[in-house]
Amino acid sequence: MIDMMILACAAVVAITDRTRIAVVAAVIIAGITGGAAVTAGHGSGLSPILSFAVAGMTALIAPLGILYFVRVHPVAGDLRPSVGVGMRVAIVAADLFIARGTIGLASFRTEPELLPDAFLLLCALTALMVHRNLLGQIVGLLVLGSAVEYAGDVLLPTLPGIVRTAFAFDAVIVTFIALLLVHAFRTHYPLLDVSSLRRLRG
Amino acid sequence: MMRALVILAPVIGASVALVIPVRAVRRWVRIVAASIAAVLPLELLGREDPLAWSMLALVSFIGFLATLFSVGRYGHEAGSASVEWSRKAVYFWLLGAFWSAMALAVLATDFATLWIAISATTLATALLVGFEGEADSLEAAWKYLVLCSAGIAFGLLGIMLLGRAAIAAGLTPAAALSWHALAAAGLTSGQARVGLALMIVGFGTKAGLVPLHAWLPDAHSKAPAPVSGMLSGLLVSCALYALMRTMQAAGDVSSAHLLHGISIWLGAASIVMGGLFMITQRDLKRLLAYSTIEHAGVVTLALGIGGPIGRLAAVIHLFSHACAKSGAFLAAGILQADRGTTELARLRGSWQSGLGGRLLFFGGIALAGMPPFGPFVGELLLLVAAVVRRTWIPLGAASLGLFLAFLALARVIGETSAGDRHDDGARVGVPMRRYRRVVMAVATSCALAGALAVAVVPWTSARTYVVHLSDVLKGGTR
Question: pTM for the complete prediction?
Answer without folding.
Answer: 0.92
